[in-house]
Amino acid sequence: SAKEAGRNTFRFYTQGMNAEAMRRLEMETGLRRALARDELLLHYQPLLNLATGRIGDVEALLRWRGKDGGLISPGEFIPLAEETGLIVPIGEWVLHSACDQARRWRQDGLEVRVAVNLSGRQFSDRHLVETVRRALTESGLPPRLLKLEITESAVMRNAEEAVRILEELKALGLEISLDDFGTGYSSLAYLRRFPIDQLKIDLSFVQEITRHPDGAAIVRGIIGLAQSLRLQTVAEGVETVAQRDFLKDSGCDLVQGFLLSRPLPPQELAALLRREPG
Ligand code: C2E
Ligand code: MG
Ligand code: MG
Ligand code: MG
After folding, report:
1. ipTM rounded to 2 decimals
2. Domain EAL: where (predicted)?
3. SS (H, E, C) the chain
């Protein structure tokens, strides 16, 4: 495209390049290499079902192992991956890798549903449905064990089109969660039309629960809205017992956060699942 051509041309104008552009170019090159050389990995964070007391779901969270061996978090590289379009091949890798992992856990007797995050650019990629279908068939994971997390802002960008894409994805037999709920601008009319299963309450609201009465009221309001639309609720970023107790009292279905566990490498997550009361 013209945009890509523009970016390539830009590379030759190093004289005028400022420090920020240099840093970004370095990171883009690094990210391409990371994808090619297997320097990307997934950690998994468990979600606790408050009614059953069991872990039925885990969320796959992307990490990049940098040159020094340290892990770089997605907040630092997803925005650039979005801008450059690299998020599309990276997202495909994430899907395949997460489905494969969940299928292997299942073979080992640990049945959990795996949630995979999709960013705005991935959601509007016209090959998305085919990519997801392929990840499912190639891994052999039953579709009900895959959940896609799509942010409220990504679906609201073009809500009419989003309804169509979500319907195609749902037809594959998987689950869909609306991530970071409450941070975007949802049209309630669309919320009703989206074939989704779950609202995921953004951690910024969860953290306000015990800090401010309004925070607690907002969370109760979101849970009430979800219940009236027959959607499940997940609260992310649950760090304290007080937050968890409030969420349980308010009828929230699932909780996720450091109180239960940080995102873990696959072997550690498997060990945690094995320690669960049978
Ligand atoms: P998200 O999907 O909303 O994920 C929740 C983030 O909150 C994760 O950050 C998680 O590690 C963090 N978190 C979990 N529990 C707690 C807690 O108790 N307290 C606090 N303060 N934070 C908690 P992470 O792993 O850095 O990911 C950040 C964001 O990057 C994600 O937000 C998601 O939007 C994006 N992301 C992560 N993995 C992928 C991916 O594979 N593909 C795409 N497209 N985006 C991804
Ligand atoms: Mg998420
Ligand atoms: Mg979230
Ligand atoms: Mg979030």
Report:
1. 0.98
2. 24-277
3. CHHHHHHHHHCCCHHHCCHHHHHHHHHHHHHHHHHHCCCEEEEEEEEEECCCCEEEEEEEEEEEECCCCCEECHHHHHHHHHHHCCHHHHHHHHHHHHHHHHHHHHHCCCCCEEEEEECHHHHCCCCHHHHHHHHHHHHCCCHHHEEEEEEHHHHHCCHHHHHHHHHHHHCCCCEEEEEEECCCCCCHHHHHHCCCCEEEECHHHHHHCCCCHHHHHHHHHHHHHHHHCCCEEEECCCCCHHHHHHHHHHCCCEECCCCCCCCECHHHHHHHHHCCCC
